[in-house]
Automatic annotation (TrEMBL):
It catalyses: [protein]-peptidylproline (omega=180) = [protein]-peptidylproline (omega=0). GO terms for biological process: positive regulation of transcription initiation by RNA polymerase II. GO terms for molecular function: peptidyl-prolyl cis-trans isomerase activity. Residues 5-39 form the WW domain. InterPro entries: PPIase_dom_sf (IPR046357), PPIase_Pin1 (IPR051370), PPIase_PpiC (IPR000297), WW_dom (IPR001202), WW_dom_sf (IPR036020). One of its GO terms (cellular component) is cytosol. Its EC number is 5.2.1.8. Pfam families: Rotamase, WW. This is Peptidyl-prolyl cis-trans isomerase. Residues 68-178 form the PpiC domain. Keywords: Isomerase, Rotamase.
Length: 178
């Protein structure tokens, strides 16, 4: 195991030129994947990703041109065992209760209220694959997201972070970006 990244021997983190996202690559086997390989130490990987792959900038392709009627938002998702897909890039099987997930998301809300950045938290803590992009979901319009999520996101002012939102996916904190 690599003691810096937490990845199994031979695996490394690379950045996709086309998507500007980190991915996992094994040079000897030429295997590449978006999800961490089996045997990864999630705590070491989380620390490494926060230090080396935190989303600080927005690519030019994500600008607001040609997105009439759409908004852009980021989110931090905490899943629980009753989520519609109780697995994530961080955990292959999520077993926490809804109450535990709610407590975790409220803790993240308190950290954001104390000055932490949702994007930085999402990079290491979100159960959504958008964590690679600091939780950024890109542009979406009405009808593209679950109703509770969409209603909350469209109700926010640019820069504002929502209260906890519950959907079939789990508990979210949403920040409107554009």
């Amino acid at each position: 195991m690599n003691n810096e990244t937490g990845l199994p021997e031979g695996w490394e983190v690379r950045r996709s030129n086309t998507k500007n996202l980190p991915y996992y690559f094994h040079p000897a086997t030429k295997d590449s994947r978006w999800e961490p390989p089996a045997g990864t130490d999630p705590e070491l990987l989380k620390k490494y990703m926060a230090e080396h792959h935190s989303s600080k900038g927005i690519s030019a392709s994500m600008s607001s041109a040609n997105h009439e009627g759409k908004i852009r938002a980021a989110h931090l998702l905490v899943k629980h065992r009753n989520s519609r897909r109780p697995a994530s890039w961080r955990e292959t099987r999520i077993t926490r209760s809804e109450a535990e997930a709610e407590e975790i998301i409220q803790g993240y809300r308190e950290r954001i209220d104390a000055g932490e950045n949702l994007s930085d938290l999402a990079t290491t803590e979100s159960d959504c694959s958008s964590a690679r992009k600091g939780g950024d979901l890109g542009f979406f319009g009405h009808g593209d997201m679950q109703k509770e999520f969409e209603d909350a996101a469209f109700g926010l002012k640019v820069g504002e972070v929502s209260k906890m939102i519950k959907t079939a996916s789990g508990y979210h904190l949403i920040q409107r970006l554009e």
